[in-house]
Design brief:
- Strands 1, 2, 3, 4, 5 and 6 form a six-stranded antiparallel beta sheet that branches.
- This protein is an alpha+beta fold.
- A hairpin with a 5-residue loop joins β2 and β3.
- The protein folds into two domains: 54 residues; 102 residues, Chitinase A, domain 3 (Roll).
Length: 177
């Protein structure tokens, strides 16, 4: 009888120890999973913050002084003169651009935000680009200050370009075809 009690006590102790061990193991796995999840969330948040910091949209255009004065004619300024192929009226160009409102200097769009230049025939672009890009050479950087009539006129363009907005673009010409 005494042997049965000892065996029962040992079995009960083993049962309790294994149950506590299993509970502790589950607790530790959940805790580890929560820690990994929190680290993943922090990494995602940090990545999002870095992306937002690198976004040009909504920032001021560098080396530009906003003005409420209306732009009356297209102004073309070469910041860097390129040495590559020269764009013509019939060219297809690949370029990076950053566009801002003349009145505020606030950037409304930049191809650099997406990390990819854009490619388009000049004939598909706004009048200010059709007139302001020919003669520019690949590798060059040009600033175009464009009156509303040679941009989007009284229609504007979406929420970021109000009607009758004069625009300024910094254009980095990458290639000409």
């Amino acid at each position: 009888m005494r042997t049965q009690r000892v065996v029962s006590f040992i079995l009960a102790t083993i049962f309790i120890a294994s149950t506590l061990g299993a509970v502790l193991l589950v607790f530790m796995q959940n805790n580890e999973a929560n820690t990994e999840s929190q680290q993943a969330n922090q990494t995602t948040e940090q990545s999002t913050e870095k992306t937002n910091q690198n976004t040009m949209e909504g920032k001021m255009l560098e080396n530009f002084t906003p003005t409420k004065d209306r732009v009356t004619k297209l102004d073309i300024k070469d910041v860097v003169v390129g040495t590559g192929a020269e764009a013509t009226e019939t060219s297809t160009i690949t370029a990076h651009y950053t566009g801002a409102l003349v009145a505020t200097g606030v950037i409304f769009q930049s191809s650099k935000d997406g990390g990819q230049p854009f490619t388009s025939p000049l004939s598909n672009l706004i009048e200010g680009w059709k007139i302001g890009i020919p003669g520019m050479k690949a590798g060059g950087v040009r600033r175009l200050t464009i009156p509303a009539e040679q941009a989007y006129g009284s229609a504007g363009s979406g929420a970021s370009i109000p009607p009758d907005s004069d625009l300024v673009f910094d254009i980095e010409l990458i290639s000409v075809n």
